[in-house]
Amino acid sequence: MAHVRRTSIALTALLTLAAGLPGAPTPARAAAPGSERWSADLTVAGDDDVNVTWRSGRLRLADPHPTDHTRPAAAAGPVAEGILLTAPRALDHPATRVRAQLAARTGGGGTATAQVRGWRAGRWTEWRDAAEAIFDQPVTQVQARVVLTTPNAAAEATVTGLTLAADTAATTAPSAVALTYRVYATRIGLVGGVTANGHTVGVRDHFAALPSRRGLSPRGTGDYTVKVCTTNGSRCEYAPVWDVGPWNTRDDWWNPSDVRENWRNLPQGLPEAQAAYQNGYNGGRDQFGRTVRNPAGLDLADGTFWDGLRLTDNAWINVTLLWTAGGIRGVVGSGPLNLRTGAGTSYPSRGLAATYAQVPIDCYVTGQRIAGPYRTTTRWYRLVGGLYVSHAYLSTTLGGTAPHC
Fold it and tell me: H/E element holding 80?
């Protein structure tokens, strides 16, 4: 993972917006009084960085050609993509706002953007564009990432520096209940392809894709986990979000219009692809100009689709975006893990929890003794919604201590 340093770029660095003219600078804004300032190290040094390299004093795509290995598998968009993930920075004081200046050059359809997220109450916030990100609670750590895209090798998308400043601003109260919507889900397939976070899709894999990077988990984590269930509730799976798609890459349809990336005139919870397919929205096309051929707002890897939900065809499902609310969560270290109706293996399974998924814990009970990869224990957790998992298969818990049921 890349490391953070203070001196790589001065605070007078220029901000070049990807949507502006190639190389056209915008003067950096002064940080608010009392803010904490730092510069991000853009060295490519970890396996959580995807298709980027530092060469000749610039961060750039390692391979700028759109292929199955350089674009999000679920979106199959006509652009190559790369992501640099910096190390989290511990703040000297809690903050509710982060602003960034990105020194970049773009041209020929290339883009360069910076995004940030904050750590509070044992979990990460959603990723936000770093021009100005405001969090609903004070954060104690900040992590940044740089996203580069090019439609072909002739396009330019390079970055020479990223500076950030954290301070306080007015916030809104966080949600107490995770957002749930009914959306159309399709099967990813694409075994051997590479997801937006650099994961190579395996046979009967377990993860999900959403059409926005705001809920994209770094590789090997379930920082952003969804609970997907059949509409009758008979089967569910907790799955980490590891890819971007289907159709779009900037459609966080679960967010309200004042923070939604694009398509702000659509109702909250309505994916752009669904509106395009059903109502002819945007001329029936996605952000790339392609004709939308199904209303999908979510993609499921084959194992989640076939084994977790036991679907046989694309279908409407209920999806809960678990990071949109707080609470205690357990991290599945060894999965897919059965979701039981009671505290023992004799109880029926009603679905699965994928490896790295974060499952919302309600309380714990004493049940069947289980020898697992992390411990031997009689503790079982009752999850929000009523299903049970053994503590023996959870690598850790986050966000507090679970009470006894």
Answer: strand 80-85
Model confidence, pTM: 0.88
CA dihedral 332, 318, 175, 34 (to 10 degrees): 70
Whether 404 maps to a domain, the answer reads no
Identify the CATH number of the domain in which residue 367 sits.
Answer: 2.30.30.40
376 and 241 belong to one structural domain: no
Q: pLDDT for 98-152, tens place per residue?
A: 999 999 999 999 999 999 999 998 899 999 999 999 998 899 999 999 999 999 9
**Average pLDDT of 263-292?**
97
300 shares its domain with 193? yes
Which residue has tokens 């610039």? 58
Residue 103, beta-bridge partner list: 161
Domain interval for residue 341 = 327-398
Q: Is 231 exposed, middle or buried (0-12, 13-18, 19+ CB in 10 A)?
A: exposed
Specify the CATH number for the domain of residue 267.
2.40.40.10
Angle at 314 between CA 308 and CA 315, to 5 degrees: 80
Chosen domain end from 104, 132, 167: 167
- pLDDT for 220-240, tens place per residue? 999 999 999 999 999 999 999
Could you read off the pLDDT of 328-363 as tens digits, one per residue? Answer: 999 999 989 999 999 999 999 999 999 999 999 999
Do 149 and 11 reside in the same domain of the chain?
yes
**In this structure, are residues 50 and 83 in contact, taking their beta carbons and an 8 Å threshold?**
yes
358 assigned to some structural domain? yes
Q: How many domains does the chain have?
A: 3
Q: What one-character DSSP code corresponds to residue 344? A: S
Q: Tell how far CA 73 is from the center of its chain.
A: 15
- The DSSP output letter for 305 is I
HEC per residue, 217-283? CCCCCCCCEEEEEECCCCCEEEEEEEEECCCCCECCCCCCCCCCCCCCCCCCCCCHHHHHHHHCHHH
Tell me, what's the pLDDT at 12? 30
User: What distances in angstroms separate CA 88 from CA 31, 116, 119, 143, 215, one per listed residue?
Assistant: 20, 10, 9, 4, 17
Residues 59 and 162 in one domain: yes
316 and 205 share one domain:
yes
Q: Give the list of residues 6+ apart from residue 26 with CB closer than 8 angstroms, or none.
A: 14, 15, 16, 17, 20
Same domain (yes/no): 149, 295: no
User: Would 405 be classed as within a structural domain?
Assistant: no
